[in-house]
Amino acid sequence: MNYTHITFTVKSEDFNSIVKKLEDIVINILLGRKRDERDERSVYFTDPDGHKFGFHTGTLRDRLSYYKTINHK
C-alpha cells in the first residue's frame, strides 16, 4: 500500500460537512484506521486519476505530539 498523499488541515466544526460533500459527489472515500480522539479526525479519498488526498482536523504538530505520548507508554 502506498501512503503518499496530500492532506489539508480543516477546522473540527467543518469536518462533518466536508465528509458529507465528499459523499454527495460520490468520490472514492478510503477506509481509515480506528483513531483515538486525541489523534483528531481524518478522511482520505482518491481523485479520478487515483491521487490520494485527505482532510484532517488538528495540526501536524498536534499529531506528532500525540504519537510521542503513545510511543513512550
UniProtKB/TrEMBL annotation:
Domain of life assignment: Bacteria
PROSITE patterns referenced in this protein's UniProt entry, alphabetically: VOC
Regions crossing the membrane: none
All copies of domain VOC, residue ranges: 1-58
Protein name: VOC domain-containing protein
Organism, scientific name: Paenibacillus baekrokdamisoli
Lineage of the species this protein comes from: Bacteria, Bacillati, Bacillota, Bacilli, Bacillales
